[in-house]
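Checked the freezer inventory, then went back to the computational side. Two predictions to log before the end of the day. The first one is the construct we discussed on Monday; recording sequence and tokens without edits.
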Amino acid sequence: MLMSARAEFDLATRLRRSGASLGEVFAFVSGLYFRGKMTYALEFGDPPDPTAPLTGTGSLIITTNAGLRAPDTPLTLRGLRALASGRISVDDVTYRRALTRSAKAVRDEVGPDCEVVLLGSIATPKYVDILLKVFDDRLYFPKDFVGRGDMSRGGLLLRAARAGIELPYVPVRGAVRHGARPPRLEPIRRNL
């Protein structure tokens, strides 16, 4: 839909004409899950150096073919097609090399005392195996993620950001990565 030449909505036309930001495109494609991540990261992301090329935003997005990128990274339709042709899998050489290379650059940029928080899934090796090799004991995740699926994690992050309450983090190394499903989140009440 987003890549269709017939799509006339704002994001699709900008993507074809001049480009859009990586964060906008991911929010459109992933919906609640990614919106929750971005809202939370904007609320609680604490860049060690706001002027640093990689980490100045306080949050980075894992891509299929370009490693870690800032949400405001420009993306064209051609770039989106390249992203869409890749896979997020430890078996995919392009993904693994790009993520390792950019994670090492982030590690070097933030220094030895900075903790890195993963807002992605810790239940599969697709992020964890690669990032643990780079960040070791400095890689953390919200402990309330255990047992939650994508949408539940997105909803949890969105609620925490809206409430201004940062979630507690635990190190990924040695953590329980699979657990019982927690109770469903209470629905967000909207004022109509």
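The second is the one RB wanted added to the comparison set:
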Amino acid sequence: MKRLLLLLLIPTLSYSQITYEDIMSIDTTDSFIRVMIENGYEKVVNQSDDTYIVYSKNLTEDSLSNSFCMYNNVDRIYRLGLNKTSLFDKLGIDDIRENSYDMIVNDIKKNCKYYDIEKTTVNEDEYEYVCYSCMESKYIGKIGFTIKDGWGWIRNFPYY
């Protein structure tokens, strides 16, 4: 039964994932929105602040999602939060597949050059990002990644 469930769900779970190439192409509000829509993300209405554009994948009524992506259209900073716990993990089935976060990070490490460690604070939580400089990126700056509370976070650090 578990194998049948696995065979039925694999195509839907692997469909339309954000890639390294997608992330390297984000340098404007329009390019962020394009990447989100092309990868099946839905805009989350944010009535309190128009500085941030937020998209989510598979958002439920109780505001749960397996992926949130936000873009600060003033500072041109994007932040992608990708849940590293798959549906299979939740069902007690060992999931040996790489998730979107792992695939993107592997491509960053393969194609970019290590730069430094950046510390940021979000809602009083401190994050330490391993940062790389990528020649392929359309934005001017570096990209960082980290894991916190089962979520993989990827964001850019623009140079001004």
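For RB: Residues 2-14 form the longest helix (13 residues). Residues 26 and 32 are 5 Å apart (CA to CA). Let me know if you want it refolded.
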